[in-house]
Amino acid sequence: MIIWTYKAERISVDMEISEIVEKQRIYFASGATRTPEFRIAALKKLQATLRKYQGRLADAMKHDLNKHHFEAYMCETGMVLEELRFHIRHLERWMRPKRVPTPVAQFHARSSQVPEPYGTVLIMAPWNYPVNLCLTPLVGAISAGNCAVVKPSAYAGASSSAIAEILSEIYPPDYVAVVEGGRQENTALLREKFDYIFFTGSVEVGKAVMAAAAENLTPVTLELGGKSPVIVDRTADIGLAARRIAFGKVLNAGQTCVAPDYLLIESSVRDAFIDQYRLALNRFFPRGDMSGMATIISEKHYLEKKALLEGQRAVIGGGFDDSRRFIEPTLLVDVTPDSQVMREEIFAPILPVLAWEALGEAIDFVNARPKPLALYLFTGDKACVKHVLDRCSFGGGCINDTVIHLATTRIGFGGVGASGMGRYHGKDSFDTFTHYRSIVDKSTWVDLPMRYFPYSARNFAWVKRFLK
């Protein structure tokens, strides 16, 4: 078992970021992070510490977002613990070189793909799921054998501080460092040359991260967002659809990158859906008590989301509470495609509804816009499922549910086009932070002469036999 004998120290903004990165490069070059024993011990330390401090983290998320402790565990701490369990169980197998066939032209040799860590990586996390979206990528970085600089979001200040305290307690900063702060620290970090950058956040900031990475030809994963549509047809179980869409929309007050952003519903079942959506919310919040629901992260964000309601017709909700940055779960109808609420990712518990007569209208509507991070389809018609999946491109999604596709270690999660690039979760996290070296181990007892000068017609004939 690996035991670290160091005095835990917390990284402050006074410590030069370039010094942090340089120390991590030296530590990585020592080879300390490469063994499976070291990596598993590091993962187990994080696992034990998360269990120990899950209450501390829940309190921090309650402070930042009014996140209920149940939701904090279900969507944040519990998901990180599940990711840790999966990596600890499978890591040694993932680390083994993978034998692959060798072409006859390379006789006699053995070929393999050998996983190696990138080196020092940067993880830039958002505020909406401050624990999950910070620590889940870190699990992948540790599992793959990297050193990591972690940058939590300043918007979720209590969570950022808790993460910094927890990680500094178990890891030396030469291995895993946390840099707190805002735009100034982000800019300073992006000036450094990292071996990999993992960013989760908005499309606009993602473009800036990619531009900065391009200066050093640094590979990146961008987990972005966009307007994720829900399509509902008349064959769907409308009650179930309403309940599951409402769940995806009120979770974290809609501040989820894969939250249902707008609803495209067959016109014949629109009114029935509205009734069922209202019923679902009444069951979620008996007697109208929404005190356990998350609030909008900041005053700036709250005012932006509140403005989206102006001039819109709300058939459900539409209320707000300025004193605590709270917006009621809201359903909007008679929404026009060019309205402000349809121009940007909503990131609030507001759901615009647009009706269609033929499925092709809904598909064309989706395809006329940037590729979404998620798409959800509610239907009882298998032909409809195939048609939508064949026609629409999106990061991932669900049939007859919302959001849950990102809550599994068995399939990767990521975007496409404007919604991002790269994948993580489970083995995809390990793969993201791993470079696979191709190695050919050629024997010395035979050396076929055909490749050498002088070239001849006879050797050319032999080459054509092998390469055809």
3D architecture notes:
The N and C termini lie far apart (52 Å). It contains 15 helices and 18 strands. The model is unreliable at 1-10 (pLDDT under 50). With 468 residues, it is α/β, with parallel strands linked by helices. Strand 4 (147-151), helix 6 (157-170) and strand 5 (176-178) form a beta-alpha-beta unit. The longest helix has 27 residues, at 69-95. The protein has two domains: 17-224 and 420-436, Aldehyde Dehydrogenase, Chain A, domain 1 (3-Layer(aba) Sandwich), CATH 3.40.605.10; 229-414, Aldehyde Dehydrogenase, Chain A, domain 2 (3-Layer(aba) Sandwich). Strands 10-13-14-9-8-15-16 form a seven-stranded mixed beta sheet. Strands 5-4-3-6-7-17 form a six-stranded mixed beta sheet, with helices on both faces. The radius of gyration is 25 Å and the shape is globular. It has helices spanning 17-29, 36-52, 54-65, 69-95, 132-143, 157-170, 183-191, 203-215, 238-250, 270-284, 299-307, 359-367, 382-391, 427-432, 457-466, and strands at residues 98-100, 109-117, 120-124, 147-151, 176-178, 196-200, 220-223, 229-232, 262-266, 313-316, 320-321, 326-327, 330-333, 350-356, 374-378, 396-399, 420-421, 434-442.
